[in-house]
Amino acid sequence: ILGESESIPSTLASKEKPLVGIIMGSDSDLPVMSVGADILKKFGVPFELTIVSAHRTPHRMSQYAIEAAKRGIKCIIAGAGGAAHLPGMVAAMTPLPVIGVPVKGSVLDGVDSLHSIVQMPRGIPVATVAINNSTNAALLAIRILGAFDYKWLDKMSQYLNTMEEEVLGKAEVLED
Ligand code: RP5
């Protein structure tokens, strides 16, 4: 079911068996979601990226959600805009952790997406990041992987150290 979409550059997906699945409701979400994909690439996390729409391709969505764990996916990042039901629907059909990225549409500034994703009724959790913040979705996915493989925790610690050094460097410049 994961044939390459014509609208998605194949370079965005890794050759290794993916651990993280990035899905999005439309190719119009790609500019937002590819930022998170780049983070996974930088960390060396094998991932896949494809379009799965809850309302336009409901059968593909259920197949994706049902088969993800069996295929070795450990965490799903789902981005969607508007009445953003994709992350919640996928979470309802898989025991895997699902991280939702509210994508800002042309109206309502993305608050519609945010509320749709963050307001999941009890029983089906979706970890929700800030509007358009696929960076944090990717970082959270890496932390989840790190709970089972210290390799990712080490990389995350290095990332945090580098970030701290960068900010301290800027602070020093201001103090001079
Ligand atoms: C959602 O509708 C998608 O996630 C996208 O954010 C939004 C608009 O989709 P397009 O009309 O641009 O395809 O399903």
Automatic annotation (TrEMBL):
Top-level taxon of origin: Eukaryota
Family assignment from sequence similarity: In the C-terminal section; belongs to the AIR carboxylase family. Class I subfamily.
Annotated protein name in UniProt: Phosphoribosylaminoimidazole carboxylase
Native species: Suhomyces tanzawaensis NRRL Y-17324
